[in-house]
Design a protein that fits this description.
The complex is a heterodimer of chains A (about 290) and B (about 325). Chain A is mostly helical. Helix content of chain A is about 75%, strand content about 5%. The longest helix of chain A is centred in the first third of the chain and has 29 residues. The N and C termini of chain A lie far apart (about 40 Å). With about 325 residues, chain B is mainly alpha-helical. Chain B has 14 helices and six strands. In chain B, strand 5 and strand 6 form a beta hairpin. The two termini of chain B are about 30 Å apart. Classes of the chains: A mainly alpha (about 290), B mainly alpha (about 325). Chains A and B meet through helix 4, helix 9 and helix 11 of A and helix 4, helix 5, helix 11 and helix 13 of B.
C-alpha cells in the first residue's frame, strides 16, 4: 500500500518536476514567471492524442510532432506577446503570461471541446507487479524519459556553449551582451525550450491521466509550487521539489483526505516561503 | 485629495444617487450592485499592483473570507451581520499578515507565489469544510444585512450600501495616494519611476509600506465580500476561485495600472462585459485572454490611461505647447 502510494507520488512528482524545470528555464533567462507553463503540458498531450488517434500517425511521429509544435508555439508567444513589452515591469509581464494561459485554454476548448481524451500506453496496457505494488509499464517510460531528459539538460547547461550563454544572461544580461551573446534570442530560445519540455511532459503523462482543455491550470500551479519549494532557478531544486510534492500529495490523499490533496502542496510552499523563502536548494538570500 | 479628484468624486456621487430614479429594472440594479462591489475590490488591487508593484492572486479568496464569515456567523450561529463584518476583517488581516510578512520582506516576487497558493488553499477550504461552509453546493439562506430593526431587503438598498462603501473606499484611497504615504509608495514603485534603494536611502520603510498596502487591499475585498453575501443570500466556492482572481486583475489592466480612477472604470467594464459575453458560454475565456494580452501590448496604460492621454493630446493641440519659460504657446 505504502509502495503503491510512493509510485503514484513519484510519477506525478516527475511531471511536476518537468513543469518546474520549464519555469526555471524561462525564469533564468528573463525573470518572468510563466504562468502558461501548464498549458504547454496540456497542449502537448492533446496534440499527441490528436495526431495519434485522429490522424492515425505512428506513436513516435505524433509525439515528436506534438513536442515540436508546442515548442514553436512557445517561441511564437515570446515573439508576439512578450518581446514587444520586454522592458515593462514584472507585474505587466506576469499578467501577460496569465493572458496567454487563458487564451491557450480557451483555444483548446474551442478545438477539442470539453471531453477528456486518452492516449494509449507506449508499450501495451499490461501492468507489472513490483513488491506487491501494481504499476503500468507507462510509469517506467515516464521515469526513463525523465531521467534521460534531466541528464541532457544538466549537460546542456553545464557543458555546452549555448547552455552557458543562457545562464550568463541570467547572471548579468548586460555583461552577457557585451561578450556577444544575443540576449534577445536567448529569451526566445528559452520559451521554445520550455514549450518543448512542457509538451514532452504532457505527452508522456497522457497515457496514464486523461487530458482535457482545463488540465493545464492545476499542473501549472503544481509545477510552479515545485519550483518554489526547490528554489526558483535551481535545476536540482526543481527535481527534488517536484518529487517531494508528488509524494506528499499521494500520501496526503491516501492517509488524510482526497479533498485536501491539492491543498497539501500549497501548504508546503507557504511553509517553505515562511521559513526558507529562497527554497530548499537555493543558497543565499535575495 | 486633489481638487480635481474631489470634483470627480462629487460628480460620481451625484450620478450614483440619481441612477435609482431612472433604473427600475431589478436585473440592471443587481448589475450596478456588482459594479459597486467590484469597484471596492478593484481599488484595493489597484493600490497593490499600481502603487506597491506587487501582484496578488488570492484576492478572490479574501473576498470569500468576507462573504463566508458573514454567511456562517448569521446562518449557523444566528449572530447579527455586523459581527460577520468584524470577524471577516479580523480573519482577513490575520491571513494576509501570515503570508504577507514573510514574503514581502524579501526582494523579488514571492508574494505572487504565496498568494497563488493561499488562493487555492482558501478555495479548497471553502469547498471541503462541509459542516461550516456547506461544501461545494454552497451556503444558502443568508439573512439580509441590517443593524437592529433596520433591515435592507430591496436591491436598491443594497445598491446604496455597495456604493456608499465603494465611495468611502475611493475617497480614502485617493487621499492615501496624495499624502506622504502615497508619495512614499511612488518612491519605491518599480523602475524607472522609482527605486527601492533610493527610497530606502531617504528613510522610507519599504517593507512596512508594502505589507500595509497588501493588508489594506485585502480588507477592501473582505468588506466587499460581506456586502456580496448579504445581497446574494447565497455563497458557493465557485465564486471565489482563481478565475475570479484573474477577472479582478483584468479589471486593473483594462482600467490601467497605477490609476485609481482607472480601477473604477475597469470594474465597470468587467462587470458588464461578462453579461454581454453570456452568449459565448465558456468561450469567454478566449476573449479575456486576447483582451489581457492586447491591452498590455498595445496600450499598457489601460483604457482609462489611453483616454486621459488622448484628452491631453487634444488639449495640447488646442492650446499649444507648454513651455517652461514662456508658458503656453501655439
Amino acid at each position: 500500500m505504502v509502495l503503491q502510494f510512493l509510485f503514484t507520488g513519484l510519477t506525478n512528482g516527475i511531471l511536476y518536476a518537468m513543469v518546474a524545470f520549464g519555469f526555471n528555464i524561462i525564469f533564468s533567462a528573463t525573470e518572468i514567471f510563466n504562468f502558461a507553463q501548464g498549458e504547454f503540458v496540456m497542449l502537448g498531450g492533446m496534440l499527441a492524442i490528436t495526431f495519434n488517434q485522429i490522424l492515425q500517425l505512428p506513436m513516435i511521429v505524433s509525439l515528436l510532432v506534438a513536442v515540436l509544435v508546442v515548442a514553436a508555439i512557445g517561441g511564437l508567444i515570446e515573439r508576439l506577446a512578450i518581446s514587444p513589452v520586454a522592458t515593462a515591469s514584472f507585474v505587466t509581464l506576469i499578467i501577460i503570461t496569465f493572458g496567454v494561459a487563458i487564451f491557450l485554454r480557451g483555444a483548446a476548448m474551442f478545438a477539442w471541446g470539453k471531453n477528456p481524451y486518452a492516449l494509449p500506453a507506449f508499450s501495451g496496457e499490461k501492468p507489472l507487479s513490483i513488491f506487491g505494488a501494481v504499476i503500468t509499464t507507462q510509469v517506467l517510460w515516464i521515469f526513463g524519459i525523465a531521467l534521460v531528459l534531466f541528464g541532457v539538460l544538466t549537460f546542456f547547461f553545464t557543458k555546452t556553449i549555448y547552455g552557458k550563454a543562457m545562464l550568463a544572461c541570467n547572471y548579468n544580461r548586460d555583461a552577457a551582451r557585451l561578450v556577444g551573446i544575443p540576449a534577445r534570442w536567448m529569451v526566445t530560445f528559452s520559451f521554445i525550450l520550455s514549450g518543448g519540455l512542457g509538451a514532452l511532459g504532457g505527452v508522456i503523462i497522457a497515457p496514464i491521466s486523461m487530458m482535457f482543455y482545463g488540465q493545464g491550470l492545476m499542473i501549472g500551479i503544481k509545477g510552479f509550487v515545485a519550483a518554489g519549494v526547490g528554489g526558483i532557478g535551481s535545476p536540482a531544486g526543481a527535481l527534488v521539489g517536484g518529487l517531494i510534492l508528488g509524494v506528499a500529495e499521494a500520501f496526503g490523499a491516501g492517509f488524510i483526505s482526497s479533498g485536501y490533496k491539492d491543498a497539501m502542496s500549497m501548504i508546503i510552499l507557504i511553509l517553505v516561503l515562511c521559513f526558507k523563502p529562497t527554497g530548499l536548494f537555493r543558497i543565499g538570500s535575495e | 485629495m486633489r481638487k480635481r479628484d474631489l470634483i470627480f468624486v462629487i460628480l460620481l456621487g451625484v450620478i450614483i444617487f440619481a441612477i435609482p430614479s431612472f433604473v427600475k429594472n431589478n436585473y440592471y440594479m443587481s448589475i450596478l450592485v456588482f459594479f459597486g462591489i467590484n469597484t471596492s475590490m478593484a481599488i484595493g488591487l489597484c493600490l497593490l499592483l499600481g502603487y506597491s508593484g506587487q501582484i496578488s492572486l488570492a484576492h478572490a479568496g479574501f473576498f470569500g473570507i468576507g462573504a463566508y464569515s458573514s454567511g456562517i456567523l448569521t446562518v449557523k450561529f444566528g449572530l447579527p451581520p455586523l459581527l460577520g463584518v468584524a470577524v471577516g476583517i479580523i480573519l482577513t488581516i490575520m491571513v494576509a499578515l501570515t503570508i504577507g510578512i514573510p514574503t514581502l520582506r524579501l526582494r523579488g516576487h514571492y508574494l505572487a507565489m504565496a498568494t497563488l497558493c493561499a488562493g487555492e488553499v482558501l478555495f479548497i477550504c471553502f469547498k471541503e469544510m462541509d459542516s461550516l461552509t456547506g461544501g461545494p453546493s454552497g451556503l444558502p439562506g443568508i439573512p439580509p444585512f441590517g443593524i437592529g430593526s433596520f433591515v435592507l431587503t430591496k436591491p436598491v438598498q443594497y445598491y446604496y450600501l455597495a456604493w456608499i462603501l465603494a465611495l468611502m473606499i475611493l475617497c480614502f484611497s485617493l487621499n492615501l495616494v496624495n499624502t506622504r504615504v502615497g508619495r512614499a509608495l511612488l518612491s519605491f514603485r518599480y523602475k524607472p519611476l522609482g527605486s527601492e534603494e533610493g527610497a530606502l536611502s531617504v528613510g522610507v520603510n519599504v517593507v512596512q509600506y508594502r505589507i500595509k498596502i497588501f493588508v489594506l487591499s485585502t480588507v477592501y475585498c473582505a468588506l466587499a465580500g460581506n456586502v456580496y453575501a448579504h445581497f446574494m443570500s447565497f455563497v458557493s466556492p465557485e465564486n471565489f476561485d482563481m478565475h475570479f482572481s484573474t477577472l479582478l486583475i483584468i479589471m486593473i489592466v483594462v482600467g490601467g495600472m497605477g490609476n485609481i480612477w482607472g480601477a473604477v472604470w475597469g470594474a465597470g467594464v468587467m462587470t458588464y462585459l461578462p453579461e454581454l459575453l453570456m452568449a459565448f458560454k465558456d468561450f469567454d475565456i478566449l476573449i479575456y485572454g486576447v483582451l489581457l494580452i492586447g491591452i498590455l501590448v498595445l496600450m499598457p496604460e489601460g483604457m482609462y490611461g489611453a483616454f486621459v492621454q488622448s484628452l491631453r493630446r487634444f488639449a495640447v493641440k488646442r492650446q499649444g505647447v507648454f513651455d517652461l519659460k514662456k508658458g503656453f504657446r501655439k
